[in-house]
Amino acid sequence: MASGYGLAGGPSRCFPFWQDLLACYVVNTTADDVSGGKKCLPVMEDYYECLHHKKEATRTRALQHAYRRALAAHPREDMPPPGTIRNLGLLGKEDDTRAVLESEKAKKQG
What SS3 state is found at 11? Predict the structure, then answer.
């Protein structure tokens, strides 16, 4: 969130990345010379990824596209639908993936 506080009142999810970015700028720049900020590009990239998840979304779309191409090239009867690729198995989302797969299976049966 823009205020720096998360939904539960604590620090936001990206606050550690912001601290790393700020520390990088403090160490590498001065009031007279800001060219050292170029050293902070990887840290800034991490912070922006935390905020916007653009790389994660791009990877997910690429995986879904490859999955759909493979399905079209070699169709199988028991293959889950392409929409089930949602979270790439990141951050303990295996239960969510399992629930989606089970709901899709239940739709096919019932």
Answer: strand
- Tokens (6 digits) for 31: 């009031």
Strands (E), the chain: none
Q: What is the pTM of this model?
A: 0.58
Both tokens of residue 102?
A: 């089970």
Q: Does residue 87 carry a pLDDT above 60?
A: no
Neighbours of 47 (CB within 10 A): 21
Long-range contacts: 8-13, Cβ < 8 Å, 24+? 13/50
Distance CA 10, CA 2 (A): 13
CA angle at 64 for the pair 62 and 70, rounded to the nearest 5°: 100
Report the distance separating Cα 7 and Cα 18, nearest Å: 17
Residue-wise pLDDT tens digits, 40-73: 999 999 999 999 999 999 999 999 999 889 888 8
Contacts of 84 (CB under 8 A, 6+ apart): 97, 100, 101, 104
